[in-house]
Design brief:
By secondary structure, the chain is mostly helical. The chain is built from 12 helices and 3 strands. A hairpin with a 3-residue loop joins β2 and β3. α2 crosses α4 (82-97). The longest helix has 19 residues, at 127-145.
Length: 233
Amino acid sequence: DEAKEVGIGRQLAAVLLGSKPLHRDAALQRYVNRLGRWLSLQSPRPHLPWTFGVLDDAGFNAFAAPGGYVFVTKGLVDQVDEAELAGILAHEIAHVTEKHHLQALAARARSGLATQLIASQVRSSGAGQFVSSQMLALGRDLYARGLDRGDEFAADRHGVSLAARSGFDPYGLPAVLQQLRTAAPDNPLFTLTLATHPPAQQRLEHLEAAMGTQLDTHSGKPSVSIAQRMRQR
């Protein structure tokens, strides 16, 4: 049920925060939360306890966890404008609303991966602690390997639509994918993103086929930098 979904998300968010802490810029955290919550209000599940954060990490990446937890890295924020950030957040929101992580966790558990991971990581007699450790082990594996390609393509499609519905240029996310397409494979800032997502060119091709010219009337808006938007507030 939804309460359990939020509880699982809280555990997986702890996995992410255990790896990288939140960035100390409180103004930036407020801005990203306002932007993310506005996007989430236009989503199919606006009632979730949505929480957004910026991780103190120089890499270029974004993560989501069930129940409405979404994180972006400071390195990503430094390289995008507001429409591009909105597209990224909308992509991660789509993972949550479509329950992609929950489905992936269930599939991994059914495949026996959970048993293998727990056998190597857990020595516990308490059932509650076992369940928690099982979730953490599965979560770490999930974030290291990434979601299925179909889930990523679907989140791209839903994310572009959500960004447009929220008043942002729908070509923000494709612009980010163009950055990823030209990123050097050995660039450490992009290593994890490139390893856990389909090739950016494939994502662009899928988006082009899905979008066509349907959202062109929402495009062409002036680019607004994140620093400029934060000064306005």
